[in-house]
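ARCHIVE CARD
CATEGORY: sequence design from structure
SOURCE FIELD: tokenized fold
FIELD CONTENT:
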């Protein structure tokens, strides 16, 4: 099983932590970087190889991770000379990828079973599988529904339930057909194209532990919770 880790972003929202370190290498707890946790989890799930897409401060990631042998992984790298979006880096490494593979952001902290995502993707025969997580947003105002100058509905401080992308995907190689290597390709563009062509992605619903370490508040929460969740996040790793 092969995984692609997207680690080329500048981590602007996480500054000042990412001023000197790439986001996947910011520390969680006293001993681990986010990327180390991810690599240990992938190895524990049975993945044997991984490609890391690097850009901003990529040389630091390469120096830290190396060949991946300490985790029992064979790791190579794809270098982003310019920002390529979420899915764009896959086009530049296409000749190195198997028919089905896992793609994930390098700043995800979760106990998701990555191998099961890939297995379910392959069995679904979908072009793309998206790991999804339930979110609830509470609105602190009374919400009005209007029709021209009339109020036709009212809800007092409602909550909205929806599912979001976790930044973990199962991808089939043929899904990349028709896109040009070296040009940006966003996750949003790919999903909208699949929907337009009547080829909807498969949803993998997950309700365990998940944090997207994208903002300082999320990073602070991850550090505060890591001691409690360490055995869960690193089980078998």
């Amino acid at each position: 099983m092969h995984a692609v880790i997207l680690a080329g972003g500048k981590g602007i929202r996480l500054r000042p932590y990412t001023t000197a370190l790439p986001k996947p290498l910011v520390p969680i707890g006293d001993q681990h970087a986010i990327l180390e946790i991810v690599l240990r989890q992938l190895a524990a799930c049975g993945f044997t190889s991984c490609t890391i897409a690097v850009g901003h401060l990529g040389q630091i990631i390469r120096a830290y991770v190396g060949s991946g042998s300490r985790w029992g992984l064979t790791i190579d790298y794809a270098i982003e000379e310019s920002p390529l979006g979420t899915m764009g880096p896959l086009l530049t490494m296409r000749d190195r990828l198997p028919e089905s593979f896992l793609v994930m952001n390098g700043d995800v902290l979760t106990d998701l079973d990555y191998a099961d995502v890939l297995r379910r993707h392959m069995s679904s025969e979908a072009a793309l599988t998206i790991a999804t997580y339930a979110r609830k947003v509470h609105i602190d105002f009374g919400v009005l529904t209007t029709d021209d100058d009339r109020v036709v509905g009212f809800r007092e401080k409602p909550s909205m339930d929806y599912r979001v992308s976790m930044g973990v995907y199962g991808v089939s190689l043929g899904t990349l057909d028709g896109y040009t290597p070296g040009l940006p390709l966003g996750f949003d563009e790919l999903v909208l194209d699949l929907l337009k062509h009547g080829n909807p992605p498969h949803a993998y619903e997950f309700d365990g532990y998940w944090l997207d370490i994208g903002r300082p508040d999320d990073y602070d929460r991850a550090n505060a919770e890591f001691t409690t969740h360490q055995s869960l996040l690193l089980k078998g790793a």
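CARD ANNOTATION: DSSP finds six helices and 13 strands in the chain. The chain has one domain: 2-132+163-233.
SHELF: design records, drawer C
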